[in-house]
Design goal:
Layout (H helix, E strand, L loop, with lengths): L1 E6 L7 H10 L3 E8 L18 E4 L6 E5 L3 H9 L10 E8 L11 H12 L3 E7 L6 H17 L7 E7 L9 E3 L7 E2 L2 E5 L5 E5 L2 E2 L8 H6 L3 E6 L9 H12 L35
Parallel strand pairs: 1-2, 1-5, 2-4, 5-6, 6-7, 8-13
Antiparallel strand pairs: 3-4, 7-13, 9-12, 10-11
Helix pairs in contact: 1-4, 2-3
Bound molecules: manganese (II) ion (MN).
Length: 289
């Protein structure tokens, strides 16, 4: 029997998590771990400076469930690396989030980060979000999640890869299909709201209204067309194709001023630095990151 771990960033009491748990329990054994309160937009934060405490909860459909006073990434770490789970999951599913996680917004998303954390530890994962803040449509999104989960179990993704899934907030008869698409660029207008409190002090609120973006072949475009968007994600942000070009520019520019010990010959004429003495590169290792 397949083993699933569910997590989210909306908290242990969120409707999306409960509906997902109920649906996924038809596919196998489900464990749930989630923050004790909403943690939306906390990104990939982990708690290093305080203890984490958890409580066991009962959730219909779950073999076991825990709430944690931490972030979504904390939850996944605790469940797997902290060995709360009595067995290894075949698939980790984060969601169903109330609200979309599209385009560049994945960088802020606690939902997506919980899935990324699972992938970092070495387990297959996917994040599921419903593009409707009212929450109407969790049942449909759970159905989509279950279908894709079953496919993922049979056709595993490559290592270090996860799926980001967004389901449009429409009725099932309005759903126009599934698009596997790249991330778009999420843009907002009126991002910062400046307000004045009752005592006359100025404060700010990060808000913003999404600017409709019609760039083709993106997840944003898929949702505009009432399609489910599926985006394979990797967390290696390296722009690998320009490493040689950047290296050339950096090597030439930096050895002129930074007191590094020159490795070997090539740029020897730049070896002299403005601080007078060369620093041994070995001195740079072993420090704190
Ligand atoms: Mn959320």
């Amino acid at each position: 029997m397949a083993v699933f771990l569910l997590a989210n960033d909306d908290g242990i009491h969120s409707e999306g998590l409960h509906i997902l748990c109920n649906r996924i329990s038809q596919l196998g054994k489900v464990y749930v771990i989630a923050p004790d309160r909403e943690q939306s937009a906390c990104g990939h934060a982990i708690s290093l400076h305080r203890p984490l405490r958890m409580l066991e909860r009962k959730i219909p459909g779950a073999a076991q469930a825990w709430e944690v006073d931490g972030t979504p990434a904390d939850c996944v770490k605790l469940a797997i690396e902290g060995a709360l789970l009595p067995e290894q999951p075949d698939l980790v599913i984060s969601g169903i989030n109330r609200g979309s996680n599209l385009g560049t917004d994945v960088l802020y998303s606690g939902t997506v980060s919980a899935a990324i954390e699972a992938t970092l530890i070495g387990f297959p994962a996917m994040a599921v979000s419903l593009c409707d803040l009212s929450g109407d449509g969790f049942e449909l999104a759970a159905e989509v999640a279950a279908e894709i989960a079953a496919v993922m179990l049979k056709n595993p993704l490559p290592q270090n890869t996860l799926l980001n899934i967004n389901v449009p907030g429409v009725r099932s008869e309005e759903l126009a299909g599934i698009a596997v698409a790249r991330l778009g660029r999420r843009q907002y207008s009126k991002v910062i709201e400046r307000r004045v409190d009752p005592r006359g002090k100025v404060y700010y609120w990060i808000a913003g209204e999404p600017v409709m973006n019609s760039e083709k072949d993106t997840d944003l475009d898929a949702i505009l067309q009432n399609k489910v968007s599926v985006t394979p994600l990797q967390f290696d942000l390296t722009r690998a194709d320009i490493i040689p070009a950047v290296s050339k520019v950096i090597d030439e520019a930096c050895f002129a001023t930074v007191p590094f010990k020159q490795p070997t010959g090539a740029s020897a004429k730049n070896a002299q630095n403005t601080y007078g003495s060369a620093l041994n590169v070995d001195d740079l290792s072993g420090g704190t990151p």
